[in-house]
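Quick sanity check, Sialin:
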Amino acid sequence: VITVGIAGTSVLTIFTPLAAYGGAAWIIAVRVLQGMFQGVIFPCLLDLWARWAPPSERTNRVMVTFVGISVGTLKAIVIGELLVESVSWESVFYIFGVAGCLWCVAWIKMIRKSPDEDRSI
């Protein structure tokens, strides 16, 4: 479900510039759909840590995950500003959308739902 959430958001991110050129209704529709895809991510991350982390480590792992998300957001703001200044505002959406799609491929190859399903353990 995490993969579907990130993939859906990423694909919609790639189409955001096109939606923006289509007008306010299109951009609102894309943002609403992105919110629906993103809405499943956080509960699923908590479920993932419930399966993977021992009870004594869950709080720390969840904290590191959420801090990482915040740090990533700050980095994205800086990178986005550089892209807007050096390329175009649309490039921000294309690059981050493609990055999200590549992240999904890596996630599918590396992450399993639980330790029981991971053959490398």
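Posting the structure with no commentary besides this: The helical segments are 2-22, 24-38, 41-52, 55-86, 89-110.
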